[in-house]
Specification:
545 residues, five-stranded antiparallel beta sheet, alpha/beta
Length: 545
């Protein structure tokens, strides 16, 4: 018996040691605070038009399907008066106050939170159009500013009365070009543009603060999620005018707004620059290039080729998994969630605009729904794979096998734990050290010396699963570098990627297709530079593909 016990103990100890060797430094999933939301603004009109929704062949309340799969938030847009003088709806949800309250009640009854999206218009607004509500036309700037406060206050007071006060409020929609044109336009109006825009935003925000029953998250929202320069320009102007807000909302569609690396660069830099949470408040992807109606869709073969994901239910799901991974990698847990835009608008029975709506916008176009193939229900109302993203992130893709990846452990000593420092002959030991003002956490790794130097820092990992890995790091650099790179070495692969000299903002560098065949790999950063050249490194990740 003792012999069997000793053998069992030895086996358990051996297993434990092997298990510990491969434990990742980070393993991310959904925590309770991570927002998994859906914009359901067309739902009432869809149901009036006869839409039905199914999961595994069983008809259900679509909100219940979303809830059961992990969704915890809904987003509702609100238009001031989305009908013409004769009472004809503008279409696309008819999102007036009554419709908004009814949808909010349904969501709250299921334990879901509500994000309210003020458009400050009677119909669609975006960077290309920010039309005044009919009843606000002809007013002066001062009168409009009063209207923004009064209208916001009245909407929220009524929602409070109906016990559906929103948990998050968005002041304006895709505000790149401002709001309430021409007074609140962000460019081309003869000066003072951001002064007027900031005044409108402050009036809306004040109305929230004057009505809220508790602290309510305030969001400002821009489109073009992969364009850091646009976000920096706009939020620098807003910050200079002391506009108070909590969260930066981002629209990101991968076929219009750049790569996921572009999105990550934007999210990481703006969360650091402004000290704010970021959330992808609009996103979607096509599950087919087919079409449910006669109107040409926004997503087709060209968009799928640009984005790089198959136009299939699996491709749609894969995109969403990768997007969530990108959001969750934002340092200091500043990436707080996502909203899928209009997952229930799955056919053409509800048009993007009626004739009345087109007349309000001053356009002539085909009726129909250009979004039907980007819903997460097929044309017959059946839930697709992507509905699972509300409850199950891609844990494998989010696992980081690098140890002490942001140099926090042991940083106060100057040499971070789990990393080995190397310096060439003649290079001082302090040419590589940890410093404050990090991207992630409190410390970053810094290379610098007052004379020419050569140094590296690396770690050797064992017990990995065999397969293909990707190494990434976030860097800033200045001065003259002879060789500056991240690298990975395994039994079969030796790869390196040059680090660009970008001094102002954190930049992502990636090393793809690193093969591991014996469970071992060395990863590191090498820098050979002239006197006073510097390199900052943070937020290193080694992930299995």
């Amino acid at each position: 018996m003792k012999k069997k016990f000793a053998l069992l103990f030895a086996l358990m100890l051996s297993f434990s040691i092997a298990f510990l060797a491969v434990q990742p430094a980070e393993a991310a999933g959904y925590d309770s605070s991570f927002i998994r939301g859906a914009d359901i603004s067309t739902l009432a009109d869809m149901e009036k038009a006869g839409a039905k929704y199914y999961e595994n062949g069983v008809q259900k309340d679509p909100l219940q399907i979303l809830k059961d799969n992990g969704a915890n938030y809904v987003r509702l847009r609100i238009w001031n008066d989305p009908k013409d003088a004769a009472g004809n709806s503008y279409g696309a949800g008819t999102n007036d106050l009554k419709t908004t309250i009814d949808l909010a009640k349904r969501a709250k009854a299921k334990g879901m939170k509500v994000l309210l999206d003020f458009h400050y218009s009677d119909f669609w607004v975006d960077p290309g159009k920010q039309n005044l509500p009919k009843s606000w036309q002809g007013l002066s700037f001062e009168q409009l500013n009063t209207k923004v406060y009064d209208y916001t206050h009245s909407v929220l007071a009524e929602m409070k009365k109906q016990n559906v006060y929103p948990d998050m409020v968005q002041i304006g929609n895709e505000l790149n070009s401002g709001m309430l044109w021409p007074h609140g336009k962000s460019w081309g109006e003869g000066g003072g543009e951001f002064d007027r825009l900031a005044a409108f935003l402050k009036s809306g925000i004040k109305a929230v603060k004057d009505t809220e029953p508790k602290d309510t998250t305030l969001m400002l929202h821009l489109a073009e999620g992969g364009n850091y320069e646009t976000f920096k320009w706009w939020f620098d102007e807003i910050t200079a005018r002391n506009v108070e807000y909590d969260t930066i909302g981002i629209s990101y569609y991968p076929y219009w707004h750049g790569t996921l690396d572009d999105l990550e660069t934007n999210m990481n830099n703006i969360s650091k620059r402004y000290g704010k949470d970021v959330i992808v408040v609009e996103t979607a992807y096509g599950h087919t290039t087919g079409n449910a109606d006669a109107k040409e869709n926004a997503f087709g073969q060209e968009e799928a080729a640009t984005a790089g994901y198959a136009a299939t239910p699996k491709g749609q799901h894969n995109f969403m998994q990768d997007l969530v991974t990108s959001i969750q990698q934002v340092p200091n847990k500043k990436g707080t969630g996502f909203f899928y835009w209009e997952p229930l608008w799955n056919n053409g029975k509800v048009s993007w605009a009626t004739t009345a709506g087109m007349n309000y916008l001053g356009v002539t176009d085909e009726p129909g729904n250009e979004w039907d193939n980007q819903a997460i229900f097929d044309f017959n109302g059946n839930a697709l794979d992507a509905v699972k993203i509300f409850g199950t992130p891609n844990a494998a893709a989010q696992t980081n096998y690098a140890k002490n990846p942001s140099f926090e452990s042991g940083a106060s000593s100057g040499t971070p734990t789990d990393w080995t420092k190397w310096t060439a002959a003649g290079t001082t030991g302090t040419a590589v050290k940890t410093e404050a003002d990090a991207l992630d956490g409190n410390y970053k790794l810094s290379f610098w010396d007052a004379k020419a130097y050569e140094a590296s820092i690396y770690q050797q990992l064992t017990g990995l699963q065999n397969g293909t890995y990707k190494l990434t790091a976030w860097v800033k650099a200045g001065g003259v570098h002879s060789t500056s790179e991240i690298y990975a070495k395994s039994a079969t692969t030796q790869r390196k990627q040059a680090i660009p000299s970008v001094a102002s903002d954190w930049t992502k560098v990636s090393l793809d297709d690193v093969k591991v065949t014996d469970g071992k790999i060395e990863i590191g950063v090498y820098n050979k530079a002239q006197a006073n050249a510097w390199l900052n490194v943070d937020h290193i990740k080694l992930q299995k593909k």
